[in-house]
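User: I'm putting together a small comparison set for a docking exercise, and I want a reference complex before I start. The sequence is below, and the ligand is zinc ion. Could you produce the 3D structure with the ligand included, as structure tokens?
Assistant: Of course. I'll restate your input first, then give the structure tokens for the complex.
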Amino acid sequence: MFEPVIGLEIHVQLKTATKMFCGNAAEYGALPNTHVCPVCLGLPGALPVINEHAVRLGARAALGVHCEVHEESIFARKNYFYPDLPKGYQITQFDRPIATNGWLDVPGEGVPTRVRIRRIHLEEDAGKSLHDRIPGATAVDLNRAGTPLVEIVTEPDIRSPAEARAFLVQLKRALEYLEVSDCNMEEGSLRVDANVSIRLPGEDLGPKTEVKNMNSFSNVERAIHFEIGRQIGLRERGGAVEHQTMLWDAGRGEARPMRSKEESHDYRYFPEPDLPPLRLDSGRIGELREALPEMPWARQARFGSEHKLSTKHAELLTASRPLADYYEAVVSAGVESQEAANWVMGDVLAAVNAGTGSIDDFAIRPAPLAELLSLLSAGTITRPVARQVFARMAQSGKSARSIVDEEGLAQVRDDDALQRWVAEVIAESPGEVERFRGGDAKLMGFFVGKVMKLSGGKADPKQVNTVIREKLNG
Ligand SMILES: [Zn+2]
């Protein structure tokens, strides 16, 4: 049985206003070649200046995933020729990266897997070649050239495609909590390459292939799955895995080798002569560590102990920082923690996903939601009415109290009204009445449902139950 051995390299665009070494905007989606200057165009004599905020974000990301941040790191030139790389080299970090030796625990069935992070380094992005703008030609957009990145390199500690995906989900959640990147895969602000090899028990690590061009986590999982199968097939037929770069084709569901000429690089790294060593004294590193937010795994654990939520619910509610903040605001406004969890995971998330997808844009803020839920828990309104009021609040922006008052939605406990509704339902369902009296007790649900509908959801279901029982058995 072959064992897969997987390591990941993740490029993450840092959320800065300007580029890594010049003052141009690092914004996505501008007209091509409008955010460029002599530095990022690589014009002779232009000199780079390190973006302090990018360094801060890079160090923060590293501390968040338990790395050691170094007081001194060195920028280096990685030399290669490519049309979207106007300088003819990329400024990156080579043998002295800003951070090393981190880890992330990846939840799975049973014990979490610890995936070690070998290094994190700062670098600038290349521009972008556009193959679909001009028929028969390739265009180059240099807006992205020089935007700040961190590259995160794991040790080959991952053993399955699903585990690779789980690692990426955990990493993305961490980076979002740290607010260092948008992590938007569609816009390319988070890009993943996978190093894949297989081995028999006891075998040393063999040659690996590097799989590129995956634009979603599910494609990362599919591509690694495909590549493992391809390598196993090769070995079983007596072939050998070659060290090469594979390009994932999501449409065809397969990875194909890039021409080998393109990947036989000798980058001739050397220290960047235009930049001094990057120094961060221990005091600054300490301040950055102090300023870390409560990380998602810690918050998830706290949701379990403090709010008594199941692991599954705690994980769901800590999926993003704004969602976790929203939930905790509802709880601190006085709603019982499981009831709050049910509403946030249910009606709130459904409405958010049907809208902009961002909880920060959602019309019903935590305090008004808590007011609605207090009307429910006090018995002023029934659960079905609460859900109606919720929908009306989302549309109108009115408070729960005013919707209930204006529309007369308060729960009806008036006996006469209940008696009338029940009598009406019984009168129009003679067949069901006969079957119920004949012992088909499940029909109770049918009668209660009809009365609730007749009452517009305002009847107290418990009381309805009692009255029906009295009338049908009495
Ligand atoms: Zn520039």
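DSSP finds 17 helices and 16 strands in the chain. Residues 72 and 279 are 5 Å apart (CA to CA).
User: Thanks, that's exactly what I needed.
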